[in-house]
Amino acid sequence: MQPLLKVENLVKRYAKRSLADAREEVPALNAVSFSIFPGTTLAVVGESGSGKSTLAACLACLESPTTGSIWYEEKDLVKLGARARRQVRPQLQLIFQDPASSLNPRWKVLEILVEPLILQRNFNREEMNQRANSLLERVGLSPDIVKRPPTELSGGQRQRLAIARALALQPKLLILDEALSALDCSVQAQIANLLMELQSSLGMTYVFITHDLAMAAYLADEIAVMDGGRIVEQGPPEKILKIPQHETTRQLLAAVPRIIPPALPAVEQ
Amino acid sequence: MASVLEIQDLHVSYRSREGALHPALAGVSFGLLPAEILGVLGESGSGKSTLAGSLLRLLPRNAKILRGTVHFEGQDLLQARAEELQQIRGRRISLIFQEPSLALHPTMRAGEQVRQVLAAHGVSGKSALNKRTRQVFAEVFAEDVERISRSYPHQLSGGQRQRVLIAQAIACGPAVVIADEPTASLDPATQMEILGVFRSLREKLGLAMIFITHNPALLSGFADRVLVLYDGRVAELGPAATVLASPRHPYTQALFASLPSVMEDSETVRRKRLPVIPGDSSPSSLPRQGCCFEPRCTERMDICKEREPGVVKVSASHTVSCFKYEG
Questions:
Q1: Best mutation site among A45, A101, A218, A252 for testing chain B: the one with the most B CBs within 10 Å?
Q2: Which A residues 42-81 touch B at CB under 8 Å?
């Protein structure tokens, strides 16, 4: 099978501004390479400052890498011109950590959902409203909320809305940058289940960026561990969890807060 | 053992702009034992931050304490005069907030921020202030004390900033520290580090602590007892090891079941649905009478709709508010 996305030797350096105007460059990504296959999940785990979010921004074409390639449908996104890139971008959607700050608090749910459709200019009002309703249904929200502002929704509902908005343009890849971290535990489980459902019904491909190794192992087909801008270890979750090779992986594993797994009665779905 | 802080039947409500009262805490009672770490576990909307604020009467203007008592060192803090309370806040009971980057003054050096706390509570004289500040920093930082004390918050890491907040909180030698989600914005390794700081302070200074969190996994190996809050009520309270390993309340059980676990055999667990608690706890979906968890509970009985469950002792130190264990 062809990979959906193939990243080769990606390097991103940020110029560090100093008072003396000495040019100093900070490497955020250092020779990162991997492939993601359609319908699978790649989890990228690492501590703060390991380069995870820079990677997300590069994949979503929000940052231009210093060198390297991102191959998507036989095109290198890094070298693509502005116009061609604009055509590809709807297919790669990003979901952020905190839905409270990624949704405009002054807009109504409907406006939030149809904005991407308006920008595409291919839909009339009726089609847009219909699409908004079916998106809400898809993510388990009631169409009754279209007139409400996101501030009246709970954290879980807001993240569902952010997912619905990301799905509006029928993307192939969702980049989830700490998309569960700001949510309550019980809500995390609901959203994780929703992501798995969407993956099986729509064949979505995910890049799941997180510092939560437990959730990564749960959702991913493949885990890449990052440290200092590099991928230091990569493999299927079973392997990463049971026989971690790299020190960073061992540290992340040790830092997963554990609760003694209780023997529990079945819980209604 | 006598409690350092005794909370009885605390009811707090918020008044909406239309004038209606929305209960946030509805009859919370517990005691904090000397030198214990009490973990308060609750999700958004459970009332955990209202609890933190109401103990020192630091609540938004539209909050109303309707009933209850908070006994501390021979007086009821809810009845205390403003000046009396001012002497207790930050000196005998201190509060640590969630977001260290917001709780610190951005253009004031870390050391000065601790000195101000000391000065506000009667430590005077430059050399006395400096000496005490250095001591306090030495309690929370293993090295680099001088540099950190001279740094501005933006020059410090998230973990270091949180330690500065802890330094402020312990500066005056309080009896009780209330920490409201103090590690929520930190990455897992730093979280563990900060929990370590709290534990060592408890050992060294004999602090009693209320540690509020939404993450049950943080409490294992850290808290002595766990109090589970749901919809402003105490669902369950008991020794941490017991509550975490064998929770009795259906809510606690369902909550723990929804966590993915790295301990389990990943090949078999992976990519199955996580068990979730059906529905949510938003105010509109809570019942008007009966047990507040009844609509989401898988073990509901007829009686659960009729009235609120009382507190049931399932062992000498473990209580649950659920009809399952009554009679």
A1: A218
A2: 47-48
Q: Using one digit for the tens of pLDDT, what is the confidence trace for B128-168?
A: 999 999 999 999 998 899 999 999 999 998 899 999 999 99
CATH numbers and ranges of domains, chain A: 5-104+172-255 (3.40.50.300)
CB of A257 closer than 8 Å to CB of B220: yes
**What are the structure tokens assigned to A15, written together?**
């110029």
CB contact under 8 A, A262 and B244: yes
- Dihedral sign (CA A152, A157, A162, A164): negative
Q: Are residues B320 and B235 in contact, defined by beta-carbon separation less than 8 angstroms?
A: yes
Q: Does A238 touch chain B (CB under 8 A)?
A: yes
pLDDT, one tens digit per residue, over B19-33 is 889 999 999 999 999
In sequence order, what DSSP letters do the residues of A144-183 get, joined into one string? Answer: GGGGS-GGGS-HHHHHHHHHHHHHTT--SEEEEESTTTTS
Distances (CA, A) of B326 to B232, B248, B290, B321: 21, 12, 15, 9
ipTM, two decimals: 0.80
Residue with tokens 């950590």: A97
